[in-house]
């Protein structure tokens, strides 16, 4: 294994020296042209006149003028449903091999998103690029001899008609290259397990058999797994079990909220590398160490567009108004929140993935995820984004020396007046009224609209603290423990009432 590791390291260094990339803008123009060319004879391509768009002087402009925005429900009802019925050439030539099941945030109804062979290849190619980017980090050569723990959904994909279905992490893991399987843990037998608790228990029992150098997975679930391993072996930290652990690759969820609690499980710092793998594709990855931002994958089967994230462009259900303007990569501005749209080799077209992003470096096409279109609290005009919420909570962690890895919030009415009710996941005992006052003041300072609303229509802030495990059990309650699940950060009143009933049962009230 040591020899293979040194070969891989040499190949990565050589590739980094030889590969030259086009500018992100040029790459995006080429990707769009290739997408349209490949799909012009599909039902979608014929309906929207892809052949005619390809003849335009400005293909990007013609594309944006001709094709409407689609959210999942529209894409499913109008197009993807026909593919599921067995029809060929609907949104992409032929039929997809897989459908990725995703609820995005916790929910009982899963989405079914097509995953073509071209998308599998695109995900694999981007994964190789990410591995190649490791040469930019200060990681010793012997790291490449170690094993990688990839904590995701079951690789036991279900047969549904002629398609295989599972979460994208399970689909990706079932397609890992043969040469990588010796490095991959927990291995195929454990990866096939459907039951999350059984899988983690088995990992804990066998943990000392492996020499883990890297972890990969959603932060909340990786943290729970590490705690279980530490507890099972009566260790002080995870480095007592895996002394060569040096890298953690997070995915799809910002790591910062979990950083404080995660670091307490370590004996020493490790390199944290952010990635952005969604059910719809591998969208971005961290390319260099001196930033926490991620580089958009601009040359590999995904075309991006960006809609300014403004309340007037967002419908109540989180979808986009069709008159909202979209800009290309060549037109974006730094530090501006955008709703992300993608068109892909899986037959998604001007598709609202549901995330908001901001550019931190336009020339390098580097971004950070700032929130979700559905996680935007604008009751009575507070215009409170998840990004602003996260910033305020990090301030609370510092002010009170506590950890708040999980939270949710809703606008509620008490005697006809609006309040923001926060549930904070923390293991620390703290006066809820004290932190509510501090949180309110922090948001006033960070958000002018919130400050203005608090002086008029928003009457106050309530805080309830619960153990972070309650949030994880809520996910299990919604049949989504582990995998790609993302906790709802903002709830409507109906969902919030269900959440509060669940919490009362959990804490025995």
Automatic annotation (TrEMBL):
Spell out the InterPro entries in the cross-references: GH3 (IPR004993), GH3_C (IPR055378), GH3_M (IPR055377)
What residues does the GH3 middle domain cover?
297-363
What residues does the GH3 C-terminal domain cover? Answer: 390-494
Among the Pfam families in the record, one is GH3
Q: Which PANTHER family match?
A: GH3 DOMAIN-CONTAINING PROTEIN
Spell out the protein name for this chain.
GH3 auxin-responsive promoter family protein
Q: Which organism is it from?
A: Aequorivita aurantiaca
């Amino acid at each position: 294994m040591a020899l293979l590791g040194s070969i891989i390291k040499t190949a990565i260094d050589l590739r980094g020296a030889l590969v030259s990339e086009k500018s992100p803008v040029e790459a995006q123009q080429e990707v769009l042209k290739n997408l349209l060319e490949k799909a012009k004879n599909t039902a979608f391509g014929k309906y929207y006149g892809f052949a005619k768009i390809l003849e335009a002087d400005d293909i990007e402009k013609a594309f944006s003028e001709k094709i409407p925005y689609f959210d999942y429900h529209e894409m499913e009802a109008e197009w993807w449903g026909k593919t599921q019925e067995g029809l060929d050439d609907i949104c992409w030539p032929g039929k997809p091999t897989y459908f990725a099941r995703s609820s995005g945030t916790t929910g009982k109804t899963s989405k079914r998103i097509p995953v073509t062979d071209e998308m599998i290849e695109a995900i694999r190619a981007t994964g190789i690029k990410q591995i190649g980017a490791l040469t930019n980090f200060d990681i010793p050569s012997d790291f490449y001899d170690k094993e990688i723990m990839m904590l995701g959904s079951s690789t036991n994909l279900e047969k549904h008609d002629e398609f295989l279905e599972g979460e994208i992490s399970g689909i990706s893991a079932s397609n890992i290259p043969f040469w990588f399987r010796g490095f991959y843990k927990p291995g195929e037998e454990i990866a096939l397990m459907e039951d999350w608790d059984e899988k983690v228990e088995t990992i804990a029992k066998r943990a000392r058999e492996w020499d883990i150098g890297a972890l990969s997975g959603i932060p909340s679930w990786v943290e729970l797994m590490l705690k279980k391993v530490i507890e099972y072996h009566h260790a002080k930290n995870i480095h007592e079990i895996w002394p060569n652990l040096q890298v953690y690759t997070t995915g799809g969820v910002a790591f910062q909220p979990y950083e404080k609690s995660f670091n307490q499980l370590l004996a020493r710092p490790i390199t944290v590398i952010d990635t952005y793998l969604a059910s719809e594709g591998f969208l971005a990855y961290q390319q260099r160490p001196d930033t926490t931002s991620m580089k958009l994958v601009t040359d590999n089967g995904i075309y991006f567009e960006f809609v300014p994230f403004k309340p007037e462009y967002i419908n109540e259900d989180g979808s986009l108004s069709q008159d909202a303007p979209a800009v290309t990569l060549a037109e974006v501005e730094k530090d501006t929140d955008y709703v992300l749209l993608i068109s892909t080799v899986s037959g998604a077209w001007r598709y609202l993935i549901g995330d908001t992003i901001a550019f931190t470096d336009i020339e390098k096409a580097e971004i950070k995820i700032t929130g979700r279109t559905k996680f935007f609290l604008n009751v009575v005009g507070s215009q409170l984004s998840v990004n602003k919420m996260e910033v305020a909570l990090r301030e609370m962690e510092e002010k009170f020396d506590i950890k708040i890895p999980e939270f949710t919030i809703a606008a509620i009415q008490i005697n006809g007046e609006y309040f923001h009710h926060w549930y904070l996941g923390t293991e620390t005992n703290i006066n809820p009224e004290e932190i509510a006052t501090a949180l309110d003041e922090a948001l006033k300072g960070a958000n002018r609209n919130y400050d203005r609303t608090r002086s008029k229509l928003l009457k106050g802030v309530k805080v309830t603290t619960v153990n972070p495990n309650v949030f994880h059990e809520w996910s299990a309650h919604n049949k989504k423990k582990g995998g790609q699940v993302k906790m709802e950060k903002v709830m409507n009143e109906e969902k919030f009432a269900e959440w509060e009933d669940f919490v009362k049962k959990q804490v025995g009230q």
